Amino acid sequence: MKPRYFFFITALILIPIIVLLFFIFRNKEQQNNLTPLPTPTPVSINQQLGNYAIQKTFPVNGTKQVTLQQPVTLSVNQPITTNDFVIEIEPNFQHTIDTQGKTITITPTEQLQPGTTYTYKLRYKDGSFSDPYSFTTQGIPPTSTPPAQDNIPQLEDQWNRISQPDLYLQNRMPYQTSDFSVKGDYTPTPTEHFFFTVTVQTTQGKQAFLDWIKSGKAFIGMHSATDTFHGKDGVDPYIEMIGAEFKEHHAQAEVDCINQDAKNPACKSLPPTWHLKDEIYLMKNFERSKVHGLLMLDKHPNDKTPGDYPIAWCKEYGKGRVFYTSLGHREDVWTPNTPENFKRENPTDVSELYQKHILGGIRWALGLEDGDAKPQVSPGI
């Protein structure tokens, strides 16, 4: 082969190889000199750790019920190399760690404690740590000091509270078992508050129940809670407790509820005027000077005659607290998740606000949140 052909063929082979190697080394150099991404949003975290920029964490210092189906995730700015990070959690819980691409996923494999704040951080292979991140599980935290094992009466009391509500209440209220029937949903761990429904079977039982509320307990009523114990001779003691008595209602109507106390837990999530459609109760035996108004109409729901039409209120009853809202007849007021064959006439945000309205009232009645209960109107006005 002539020399000139040899050099020509050699050049054809070597030049593509040299160009290919140039781009390979250039790309590798760029990977080794990655710069952190700019801070994405105010709620994201951007911290340099080794060659990585941590971009965000979920959830971020918020209250979130973390379950086996809701893992905690961290994202960084480049694919993660195996064994670059170690996760440290306090208090520790059993978990799995999965690294895929640019994401680290921490999945609990055991039930987390309710109402507990967990803090976790990344330790890079060079020994440096990330900032601590935290989340708080929802619910009531477990008792910090469990009852002494030798305190048998207290243990029996806690057990009765969970498993035998009739017996638990019978030990605390002056009524006979035949005066009441009791139903409720109970958690497997004793908590400060629990919910039950009571069916009053005798006059003595009703008075005992009212006395129980007056002693410092909570009463929460929705919609038809005012449509019972209609007094034949004067106002029934139950009506005096709840604050009003159902008189009548007309066709369901679209109304504008006026928010009377935007600071109250039952109303703080509601707009100044809340538009919805529902069956609106008209009341009797209602006195503004005896309740703290929360929601009202300034005109009749149907014929629009100007007036004072109460919708929701709270009040003190002895040492107890009473919260009542007359809203809640329609299914699409109660829940955003109506069946497919249900014709919604309220948008889903009405249901979401209604649930916040009720939850706020419950929290106020249980003393978990503060709120004014003084009547806005003096007696005689």
* Residue fraction in strands: 25-35%
State the secondary-structure class.
Answer: alpha+beta
- Provide the helix percentage: 10-25%
What's the helix count?
7
Give the overall silhouette.
Answer: elongated
CATH architecture of the largest domain: 3-Layer(aba) Sandwich
- CATH fold category name of the largest domain: Rossmann fold
- Name the assembly state: single chain
Count of distinct structural domains:
3
| Biggest sheet descriptor | 6 strands, mixed
CATH H level, superfamily name of the largest domain: Class I glutamine amidotransferase (GATase) domain
The average pLDDT is 75
Please explain how this structure is put together:
- The chain is α+β, with helices and mostly antiparallel strands and 381 residues long.
- The protein is 23% helix and 29% strand.
- The protein has seven helices and 18 strands.
- The protein starts with a helix and ends in a 16-residue tail after the last helix.
List the helices and strands and how they pair.
Elements: H1 3-32, E1 47-49, E2 52-58, E3 72-76, E4 85-90, E5 95-100, E6 103-108, E7 117-124, E8 133-136, H2 152-163, H3 165-170, E9 180-185, E10 195-200, H4 203-214, E11 218-222, H5 237-242, E12 245-249, E13 253-259, E14 273-278, E15 281-284, E16 292-299, E17 306-317, E18 320-325, H6 331-334, H7 348-365
Parallel strand pairs: 11-18
Antiparallel strand pairs: 1-2, 2-3, 3-6, 4-7, 5-6, 7-8, 9-10, 12-15, 13-14, 13-16, 16-17, 17-18
